[in-house]
Design a protein that fits this description.
This protein is of the alpha/beta class. The chain is built from seven helices and five strands; from the N terminus they run E-H-E-H-H-E-H-E-H-H-E-H.
Length: 189
Amino acid sequence: MKLVFIYGQAGAGKLTVAKELAALTGIALFHNHLVVDAVAAVFPFGSPAFVRLREQFWLEVFAEAAKGTSLIFTFAPEDTVAGDFPDRVRALVEAAGGQVHFVRLTVPESVQDERINAASRHAFGKLTSLALLRQLRPQFIAAMQAMPEPILSLDAAATPPDAAARMIAAAIAEQDQADVGGTEAGGGE
């Protein structure tokens, strides 16, 4: 099982790139807002019940998928998610014999500001307020810096989504090849 964990700030193009990657690879797409929006329909965003149920749902999906269904997951690091969440996801997947491939998408602040109120962002309960984005940006930057090292980091404003998907697929294939080579050379079990 492979988990392609695409992370980036609001407006970085995570879902757009993930859709391209899913179309290219056939890997199922698990968009984080499917859970965020479902839980937020009942509990206020950031409330203890929201935080607990959102994480529980994400982890249950990963645990079930780890039995043999690869996933692409989109994720926006922010303060209501436990800082060790990505590491716990990796541990869960690796304990089941799977691999996690972290991919970071970045976008310049000026582009993020332009994208934040795009019509496509209103389809889900995504952040669409420029004022709130600017208020929360320092927290988002700190949360991004705490994420695990990615196998690939892309400027999503400078890389078209289809090209980003091809680059991600190539980086995963390269890492898989290195892992196989390491195992054959005695570097694995």
